[in-house]
User: Which sequence fits this backbone?
């Protein structure tokens, strides 16, 4: 598509009050532009310019309209700061920075923080995304600014928070920020959230119990599962070696309940992950777990490995929690890893243990045998109950290969 896109795109951030809130440089750009694309609402905020071509985005939204203006300079309108959950990020991936100019204005996030007098709020967008992302940020006293989709967002977010035990959360809807029509309404999540106009930002002051955590090793009962679950202590060990970081992609192969991929995504909002699971029932369960634990961005692929891996982008880390004995799987995983990538495989059976031991002998890395015992009632006393020992092979791809 990039070959038929405009030769240059200037993205201009437009405040909610439109023309009056723009600076002189932005006004000059818009007055001199030959072609302007934007939403119908944004275009209506601009004064008429003779012979200027203006075109509103279609519904549902698509960038295909840009193809009509190939080899021309185009101005695209955005709301506020075009890089704050805005169209500039999408255009950057298509065009690259050399074919773009971005002129921001004050974002709704800045205005919301100013109105609330918050200097420490997190930002979550649910524009075109699943609402469950908000759940990842529940913590006592945490402040979150939510970029809402429409007037129905407050009630939907309130229901999620109430279900998570955060019904006391104070929700403030800041409507039409930066205009003469600004509104401010407040209600708790248990009350169903505040009423809001279509254009608004939600400010959440979280009130509830300390649940979840930011480190790896969620309790096993945090996940819906049928027994196919990488248990808490083993999961924490695996994630320590997988070493998630912003922007890194994980394959969770033989994902079971998806616990490793989910905790990988919970480590940072810029991580990505694909859970590969052959069983369709478990694949649906993984999706439910991801949503319930605040990371609905998890991609779930249903199919057996290694065949199901063929169309996936090369990962930065791979966890093989089940099915390691599938012919050629470990070799494929090693070759698909990006330079410096990490592979962690677990084995419970003798056959898998032999395979991982042989892999360690051939490729080195780290081989660990993990045995966990838990105290449980025993004939009126307390005794240690061992779980099945797990062999863990961890391997790192060389830097600079390929």
Assistant:
């Amino acid at each position: 598509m990039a070959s038929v896109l405009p030769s240059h795109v200037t993205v201009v951030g437009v405040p909610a009050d439109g023309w009056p809130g723009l600076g002189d440089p932005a006004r000059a750009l818009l007055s001199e532009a030959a072609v302007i694309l934007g939403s119908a609402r944004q275009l209506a905020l601009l004064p008429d310019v003779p012979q200027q071509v203006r075109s509103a985005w279609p519904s549902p939204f698509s960038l295909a309209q840009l193809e009509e203006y190939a080899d021309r300079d185009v101005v695209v309108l955005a709301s506020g700061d075009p890089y704050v959950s805005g169209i500039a990020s999408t255009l950057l991936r298509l065009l690259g920075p050399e074919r773009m100019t971005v002129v921001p204005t004050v974002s709704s996030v800045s205005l919301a923080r100013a109105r609330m007098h918050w200097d420490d709020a997190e930002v979550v967008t649910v524009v075109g995304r699943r609402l469950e992302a908000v759940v990842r940020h529940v913590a006592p006293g945490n402040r979150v600014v939510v970029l809402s989709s429409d007037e129905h967002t407050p009630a939907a977010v309130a229901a999620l928070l109430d279900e998570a035990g955060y019904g006391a959360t104070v929700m403030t809807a800041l409507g039409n920020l930066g205009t003469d029509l600004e509104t401010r309404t407040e209600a708790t999540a248990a009350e169903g959230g505040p009423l809001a106009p279509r254009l608004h930002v939600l400010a959440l002051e979280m009130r509830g119990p300390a649940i979840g955590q930011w480190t790896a090793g969620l309790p096993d009962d945090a996940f819906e599962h049928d027994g196919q679950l990488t248990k808490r202590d083993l999961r924490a060990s695996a994630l320590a070696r997988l070493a998630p970081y912003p922007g890194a992609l994980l394959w969770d192969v033989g994902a079971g309940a998806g616990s490793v991929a989910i905790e990988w995504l919970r480590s940072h909002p810029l991580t990505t992950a694909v859970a590969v699971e052959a069983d369709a029932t478990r694949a649906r369960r993984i999706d439910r777990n991801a949503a319930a634990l605040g990371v609905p961005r998890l991609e779930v692929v249903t199919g057996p490995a290694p065949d199901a891996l063929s169309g996936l982008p090369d990962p930065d880390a791979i966890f093989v929690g089940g099915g390691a004995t599938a012919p050629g799987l470990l070799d494929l995983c090693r070759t698909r890893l990006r330079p410096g990538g990490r592979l962690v495989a677990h084995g419970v059976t003798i056959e898998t243990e032999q395979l991982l031991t042989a892999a360690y002998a051939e490729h080195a890395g780290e081989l660990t045998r993990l045995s966990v015992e838990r105290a449980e009632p025993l004939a009126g006393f307390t005794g240690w109950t061992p779980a099945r020992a797990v062999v863990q092979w961890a391997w790192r791809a060389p830097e600079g290969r390929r």
User: Anything to note?
Assistant: The CA atoms of residues 91 and 390 lie 46 Å apart. The chain has ten helices and 19 strands. Residues 350-363 form the longest helix (14 residues).
